[in-house]
UniProtKB/TrEMBL annotation:
<dbReference type="GO" id="GO:0003677">
    <property type="term" value="F:DNA binding"/>
</dbReference>
<feature type="site" description="Electron transfer via tryptophanyl radical">
    <location>
        <position position="385"/>
    </location>
</feature>
<feature type="binding site">
    <location>
        <begin position="398"/>
        <end position="400"/>
    </location>
    <ligand>
        <name>FAD</name>
    </ligand>
</feature>
<keyword id="KW-0274">FAD</keyword>
<dbReference type="Pfam" id="PF00875">
    <property type="entry name" value="DNA_photolyase"/>
</dbReference>
<keyword id="KW-0285">Flavoprotein</keyword>
<dbReference type="GO" id="GO:0003904">
    <property type="term" value="F:deoxyribodipyrimidine photo-lyase activity"/>
</dbReference>
<comment type="similarity">
    <text>Belongs to the DNA photolyase class-1 family.</text>
</comment>
<dbReference type="InterPro" id="IPR018394">
    <property type="entry name" value="DNA_photolyase_1_CS_C"/>
</dbReference>
<dbReference type="InterPro" id="IPR014729">
    <property type="entry name" value="Rossmann-like_a/b/a_fold"/>
</dbReference>
<dbReference type="GO" id="GO:0071949">
    <property type="term" value="F:FAD binding"/>
</dbReference>
<keyword id="KW-0157">Chromophore</keyword>
<feature type="domain" description="Photolyase/cryptochrome alpha/beta">
    <location>
        <begin position="1"/>
        <end position="135"/>
    </location>
</feature>
<dbReference type="InterPro" id="IPR002081">
    <property type="entry name" value="Cryptochrome/DNA_photolyase_1"/>
</dbReference>
<feature type="binding site">
    <location>
        <position position="247"/>
    </location>
    <ligand>
        <name>FAD</name>
    </ligand>
</feature>
<dbReference type="InterPro" id="IPR014133">
    <property type="entry name" value="Cry_DASH"/>
</dbReference>
<protein>
    <recommendedName>
        <fullName>Cryptochrome DASH</fullName>
    </recommendedName>
</protein>
Length: 501
């Protein structure tokens, strides 16, 4: 994005003092590789979303008189190629500060390589890491990172009472970044799905098919990547539809585009800034109305901050089986049958199956759905929760390393916070009482009456026969309960290096 972007503002300032600015986006193979548990990290739908976002950014930068160089390759190689080597020449690499190890390691490698390359000809290079992804700026936190509260409420209370959200950084004016030096590379080139370093050729084909045919018609929303689409969604959700003012009542929905903001994919990729969203909400509150709903979107954005800072505090522990807990452990299992049924939406639990099918077919799942499917896999099936986090990483359009792994770790009870084990049947009755959402994704259940939709296994035999029910029986689960969470500490390290992802 160009709005509220500290890197862009810094680039404009450097330009004003005579520098040439080369905006560059790199599709790095690290993000496409296969996880330790064998799941390709980046699926077709998020790749499509990323391509759209990068294309949109290129269009915006061109309109400002600049451009975007798009490359596929190791970031360190691309940065090294762009580094100036002449005596007295200086290269400054501006990059957003990241919080998780693979991303920060990537920056370190790129920094080393680019400074070494610059020196070969007597030049000089340096990296500037600039904070930019959270609502509250890291420098404004009213505590040291090591004192970050381990649970959300005290974190929220502290930031809300003791720090201010910084003002928006103005977008660059026309010409503020200058024109790009054409010698920096081929600005005409833009990757197609087949140019991306997908883990398998099939994913490139799937991505191309999504681009030409669109996403499953049953989708909650037609997500399209890019800053302009993100800003349009903010405008729609706040100003055009005024859905903002009913968010608190609708936020636990599962069907359709309107029950929640759906801003997560754009926030995750940086297409929209959380400060911008909050500044628009504040404007709405002063111009239209303020209520619990208008506040609650801000409340949710503070969750996002919490997981970002939590990841920074705990480092690779959020990827480890026993998480950040020093006083709790559990006997996680490998259960191929349960995992396969969960992934394909064939567990025999309609709420789980509907949500898992939505994820696989569209790249999105509601927060209510995520909580339930995570609880089922980790706490009912007792399966190593990292399989779930991997699956989400592959499919979610809004995959965000800190939010995904932090939420999974917490859902599995491995951050030491309260364990939320959901009763799936009760959740169905509470959040999909008529079964509209379930029938949307599990057509096999279209004739099941509302009274039985939460648990068709309890339907009388004659009714099952009458509607010719063709839906799996509930998969057999281990007899497992909270008490199996021991109070002994988990192993110090597991999952190995590379972040354990
Ligand atoms: C197991 C699990 C995995 C998750 N993985 C991700 C992920 O990879 N990326 C992601 O953005 N969110 C993740 N979430 C959080 C949440 O489910 C999504 O942010 C939300 O459903 C996205 O829809 P929305 O934009 O309409 O959210 P809204 O309800 O409109 O909320 C507004 C924004 O607040 C933020 N937010 C809300 N809840 C959370 C939360 N619990 N943690 C962090 N941020 C939150 C998001 O940025 C969201 O866009 C996960 C939740 C669970 C339980």
């Amino acid at each position: 994005r160009v709005h509220d972007n500290a890197c862009v503002a810094r680039a404009a300032a450097l330009r004003a003092s005579g520098a040439e600015v080369v905006p560059v986006f790199v599709f790095d193979p690290t993000f496409f590789k296969t996880s330790k548990r064998g799941v390709a990290r980046l699926g077709a739908a998020r790749a499509k979303f990323a391509l759209e976002s990068v294309e949109d950014l290129k269009t915006t930068l061109k309109a400002l008189g600049s451009d975007l160089l798009v490359r596929v390759g190791e970031s360190e190689d691309v940065v090294a190629e762009l580094t100036l080597t002449g005596a007295n020449e200086r290269t400054i690499v501006l990059t957003q500060t990241e919080v998780t190890s693979e991303e920060t390691d990537m920056d370190v490698r790129a920094e080393k390589k680019c400074t070494a390359v610059a020196r070969t000809g007597g030049g000089d290079a340096r990296f500037e890491r600039i904070w930019g992804s959270t609502l509250y700026h890291i420098d404004d936190l009213p505590f040291e990172l090591s004192d970050l509260p381990d649970v959300f409420t005290p974190f929220r209370n502290k930031v809300e009472s003791k720090c201010e959200v910084q003002s928006l950084i103005p977008s660059p004016s026309n010409g503020a970044l200058g024109s790009v030096p054409t010698s920096a590379g081929n600005f005409e080139w833009f990757p197609k799905p087949c140019d991306l370093p997908f883990a398998t050729p099939k994913l490139a084909q799937d991505c191309a098919a999504l681009i030409s045919n669109g996403v499953d018609e049953r989708r909650a929303m037609d997500f399209k990547g890019g800053e302009s689409q993100a800003l349009a969604r903010v405008k729609y959700y706040l100003w055009e539809s005024k859905l903002l003012q009913t968010y608190f009542e609708t936020r636990n929905g599962m069907l359709g585009g309107d029950y929640s903001t759906k801003l997560a994919p754009w926030l995750a990729l940086g297409c929209v800034s959380p400060r911008y969203v909050v500044s628009e909400i504040r404007k709405y509150e002063s111009e239209i109305m303020e209520n619990k709903s208008t506040y609650w979107v801000i409340f949710e954005l503070i969750w996002r901050d919490f997981y970002k800072f939590f990841a920074l505090k705990y480092g690779n522990k959020i990827f480890h089986l026993h998480g950040t807990c020093s006083n709790r452990s559990a006997a996680w299992r490998e259960d191929d049958a349960a995992l396969k049924a969960w992934k394909s939406g064939m567990t025999g639990y309609p709420l789980i199956d509907a949500n898992m099918r939505e994820l696989k077919n569209t790249g999105f799942m509601s927060n209510r759905g995520r909580q339930n499917v995570a609880s089922w896999l980790a706490l009912d099936a007792g399966v190593d929760w990292r399989h779930g986090a991997d699956w989400f990483e592959h499919y979610l359009l809004d995959y965000d390393t800190a939010s995904n792994w932090g939420n999974w770790c917490a859902a599995a009870g491995m951050t030491g916070g309260r364990i939320n084990k959901f009763n799936i049947v009760k959740q169905t009755k509470d959040y999909d009482p008529q079964g509209d959402y379930i029938r949307h994704w599990v057509p096999e259940l279209k004739d099941v009456p509302a009274a039985h939709i939460a648990d068709p296994s309890q339907m009388p035999r004659d009714l099952r026969d009458k509607i010719k029910l063709n839906y799996p029986n509930k998969i057999k689960l281990p007899q497992r309960s909270y008490t199996e969470f021991g109070s002994t500490p988990g192993p110090k390290r597991d999952g190995g290096g590379g972040g354990g992802r």
